[in-house]
Amino acid sequence: MQDPIQDKHIIVGVCGGIAAYKAADFVRLLIKSGANVSVVMTKAAQAFVGPLTFETLSGTPVWTEMFGGHQSHPLRHIEWADKADATVVIPATANLIGKIAHGIADDPLTTFILAAKKPILVCPSMNSRMYENPVVQDNIKRLSDAGVKVVEPDAGLLASGDVGIGRLPAVEAIGESLRCLLSRQDLAEERILITAGPTQEPIDPVRFISNPSSGKMGYALGRAARRRGADVILISGPSSLADPWGLKVIRVRTAEEMFKAVMAHASKSTIIIKAAAVSDWRPARLYEHKVKKAEIEPSLPLEQTPDILKALGKSKQDQVLVGFAAESRDLQENARAKLIEKNLDMVVANLVGAGDSGFGSDNNQVTLFYQDGYTEAFPLMKKDALADLLLDRVVDIKKRGMITELNSRSN
Ligand code: PMT
Asked: Do 362 and 395 touch, CB atoms closer than 8 A?
């Protein structure tokens, strides 16, 4: 599936606050994600950043005047409302929030907002004393009650030098909020536990056994599930990837640590997806100090790590449990064996070790195996797209029987 922002027409409303310069970065993010962007600015916003900045970034004229000049068009607010897929007000001042909460339309932005269809995302940013003012809070509540999505500001150092709530969140986080608004919320009732990345099994303080998993597949699943409304816990082995927005991320190192973290959250999860490449083996002995060449036998005694997926399969109640299988041969036989042995609802099997797929790549090519014997093979695709597809299948399994129906149609 493509980025929910791609090919959408987004109207960006800019108000007069110190964070107005960050709106320029937000427009860049939208353009980079493939959106068409139109910008409307209040008078005060133009005192902070010139319209030319937004005109250059968006590639279209910026709307600044209600009457007169070459921009004059009596029905522009209706025309823009008709073509918009979503509207983002960034930053939203106390003044602007107050006006739209009370239906005031006295400039291009407020006039357009009154006509705009949802989704509308409002990003308040102001001094904490203004933000915490009960009148402002009341106006924010009015907007929320009217179905406008209000992004809570961050706490931190404010332009006044005070520390408090009121900072505009990172534009990437606002982009994710917008993606959520533009995505179907078919996982809104779900609590999803996802594992990602490799584990590291230490030999001594500087050496370990591991594998080349980057975490990309599991993190893509986490992002996609969050956008579709799920409450997501991501348990990640060592990965250089940043924590995805909106997820609870628990970082672990070893298979044992991952086992404990997974088991602590499993019973509260409605869906569990194990994309992590967990080491099956660990050194039987952990050396306290870096081992010298002469101190160690050429063969290293190993012991098995806990099989997390198998333990989950044993304790499974009515959760959907999805495992991955990384195979370099006999994909079908090995994947089916894992499906049965570990009591899974679905196995995502990928051939690894050849081509730009699987470990470390942005792409993956997988075959899905289900309990009822049905199999689906997919071409090479981006992990982001695959993540959405796998979640579609999980939704089907939750609806019970759809995969079986699919099976009887295609067999
Ligand atoms: O992280 P990336 O770079 O994006 O790469 C993605 C991936 C190739 C790692 C991913 O697509 C993948 O295949 N993940 C599973 C890798 C793996 O460990 O496969 P396996 O066949 O060894 O294990 C089967 C299943 O059992 C997996 O769901 C694994 O999480 C689980 N397992 C394995 C061992 C163990 N001790 N406990 C487990 O829970």
From this structure: no
Q: Is 323 in the pocket of ligand 1 (CB under 6 A)?
A: yes
pLDDT, tens digit (0-9, with 9 covering 90-100), for 50-69: 999 999 999 999 999 988 65
pLDDT in tens, 282-309: 999 999 999 988 877 788 899 999 999 9
pLDDT at position 141, please?
98
Residue 358 CB less than 6 A away from ligand 1: yes
CATH number at residue 283: 3.40.50.10300
Q: Which residues are catalytic?
A: 211
CA gap 236, 316 in Å, rounded? 21
Prior bond of 119 cis (ω within 30°)? yes
Can you tell me the distance from the alpha carbon of 101 to that of 95, in angstroms, rounded to the nearest whole number?
10
User: Where is 313: in which H helix or E strand?
Assistant: helix 308-315
CA of 1 to the centre of ligand 1 (A): 23
What residues make up the domain containing 358?
Answer: 191-400
Total domains present in the chain: 2
Is residue 4 domain-resident?
A: no
Q: Which of 214, 321, 324, 384 to mutate to test the pocket of ligand 1 (most atoms within 8 A of CB)?
A: 324
**CATH (domain of 100):** 3.40.50.1950
- Given 131, 152, 182, the domain boundary residue is 182
Closest CA to ligand 1's atom 18: 277
Measured from the CB, is residue 277 less than 6 Å from ligand 1? yes
**Per the domain annotation, does 1 fall within a domain?**
no
Average pLDDT over residues 224-241: 98
Tell me whether residue 339 is in a domain: yes
Ligand 1 atom index nearest CA of 211:
9
Which of 233, 88, 87, 91 lies closest to 169, judged by CA? 91
> What single-letter DSSP state applies at residue 293?
G
Q: Does residue 326 fall inside a structural domain?
A: yes
227 and 122 in a common domain: no
Could you identify the atom of ligand 1 that is nearest to the CA of residue 325? 21
Q: Among 128, 158, 182, give the residue marking a domain's end.
A: 182
Task: Decide: 117 and 84 in contact? Cβ < 8 Å.
Answer: yes
Whole-number Å distance, alpha carbon 225 to ligand 1 midpoint, is 19
Instruction: Give the H or E element holding residue 57.
Output: helix 51-58
173 shares its domain with 216? no
Residue type, 130: M
Q: Are 40 and 173 part of one and the same domain? A: yes
This prediction's pTM: 0.91
